[in-house]
Amino acid sequence: MPARSARPARPLRQSRRVREPATSVQASTDVPRRAKPIKRQSASLALRDGGLTLACVADTHSQPHAAIAERLAALAPDAILHAGDIGDPAVVDQLAATAPVFAVRGNIDTRSAFPDVLTLDLVGDGGERRLRILVTHIAVAGPRLRSEVARLARAEQATLVVCGHSHVPFIGRDRELTVFNPGSIGPRRFHLPIVFGSIAITPQAVRLAHIDCETGRPWSPP
Q1: Where do the structural domains in the chain lie, given as residue ranges?
Q2: Regarding the domain with residue range 47-216, which homologous superfamily does it belong to in the CATH classification?
Q3: Is 185 left (phi over 0), alpha (psi -120 to 50) or beta?
Q4: Which positions of the chain have pLDDT values less than 50?
Q5: What is the pTM of this model?
Q6: Cα distance between residue 37 and residue 35, in whole Å
C-alpha cells in the first residue's frame, strides 16, 4: 500500500490568552455546536519482493500541473497518496489512470466523501507490517507537528505522517515521527515550487524525496 524540501518559516509564538472583562449579559439559550466527527479510513498495500513505490501529491485545487501525468508515468508508482485540497473530484480520477489513489479531504473539500484521516499499512509477503503511514491534510504549524496529530499518529502506531495544506515541500522529524509534505502540484503559490513526493520502500530502507513537476528532476531546497 499505500521523502526533501523548502525551509518552512519559523512558527509564530502563541500569544497569551487575554480574559475579557466581565459583563452582565443575559445567558444564551443556544445549544453549543458539536465538533464535526473525524472521518477515518484504513487500507493496506502489499509489498512486492520487499519493495514498493508511492507517489505523494497534495493541493491540486482542481488544477493539477499539466505535466503531472507524464511525471507519474515516469515514476511508475504502485499507488498514489493525495494529501487533500483536491478540488474537483475528477482530479482523483485523472490520477487513477496511472495507479490506485488513496486520498484524504482538505479544508476546501467540504462536500467530499473522502476521509479526513487515512491510515495505510504496507505489509510484507508474510503479512507483517513494514510501515504504517498516517495521511491527513493539516498536520504542522511551521516546522512542528501539531500536538493533536502527533497524538493521533501515536494512537494509530504510525511512524510517518504525510500532509499538505501549506504548499511547502518539507521532510522533517518531530516528536519521534517523520513528517512529509510533498508540496503542491496545483497553481503556484507565491514563489513556492510545483513539486510532488515519492516514498520508495526497499528491503533495506524507506526513502523520501521530492520531484520537480515542471522539469521531472529531483528537487531539493535551494
Answers
A1: 47-216
A2: Metallo-dependent phosphatases (3.60.21.10)
A3: alpha
A4: 1-32
A5: 0.83
A6: 6
